[in-house]
Structures are given as C-alpha cells and as structure tokens.
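Handoff note, outgoing to incoming analyst
You'll be picking up this chain. Sequence as last confirmed:
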Amino acid sequence: MRIAALRQEHGSETPPFLFVPAPAGFNAAAPDHMAELIATARERAGEFAARGAPVGLVDSDTFSRAMPGLDENSAPAMSDAIAKLADLGRELDALVLIVHHTGKDVLRGLRGHSSLLAALDVSLEVQREGDKRTLKLSKSKNAADGTAWGLELKPVALGVDEDGDELNSCVAVFLEQT
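Most recent structure output, in case you need it:
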C-alpha cells in the first residue's frame, strides 16, 4: 500500500524502488540463503536497469528479521552479521540500509552490541513526540552529526477494498531543517 501511495502522490507508474522480497524463512547468516537472494536481486536488477533506472540500495527491514536467532548482544555474532551485510553490498554494488530499533530505553540507543553503531557509515534516527516526527542525522562519517529535519506522514486515500472498507496509507513529507 505504501507503493500505491507513492505512485498516487508522485504520479509514477513505476516506483523508484526494486523490490526483491527475501524468501520466507530467510536467514542472511545462511550462505545458501544469501546466494539465492543475490542471484534473484541481480536478475531483477537487470530488468530494472533495462528500463533506465539504476539500482543501488538494499534495505534490510528489519535487521533482526534478516538475522533470525542472532544474539544481538554478542560481539562475534554481531560482527558476523555486519560482515555478511557488507558482503551483500559489495556483491550487488549497492548501499545497504538496515532498519533497526532502539531498546526499551531510547536514550541508550540501538539494541544490541555497540559494534553495530561503530560499523555504520551513517545512522539516521526517527524520533517521535506525539504527532511531531523528526529525522535526525545521529552519526555520519562524512558530515556533521545532529542535523535534523521535520517529517510528517501525509495520509493518502487509496480507494476501497472488496468489502467496501477504505484503504489508506501515507507518504513521508519533509518539512524544515531544524
């Protein structure tokens, strides 16, 4: 539904994304699973490139779903997971984006071992206070940390389903830099 909202909002029939969903039960730590994902992504990327669109981003949403059973607090396990995602990026010549969550205490940052934050080139953090959202550059190896932008989710009505229920989604709209 998010893709339908993007298409409706921006008037594009083809989203600016190539989606290659990982197969059910995917585990990035399993070499055969990763090889299958890379082969599928390469095949689909070729189709996408034939339409004149570059492909250069792999999104792991979420990190914990891509690495089931991973002990996030273990330095060796986290280092292995980070290495596998870096290998994926090199294999596909793409930026790897991971979606990861903070722990219950937001002030302590990302869940798990500190090697994850140390390995990141960039960390963007979405913060929410009531209905106000902010996207903050919390870490960057090549820019000033702390830059933030206001962000809102704009509702998009997509029609109704077969039962007559309204279908809705949203698109992110950036506001002022704070």
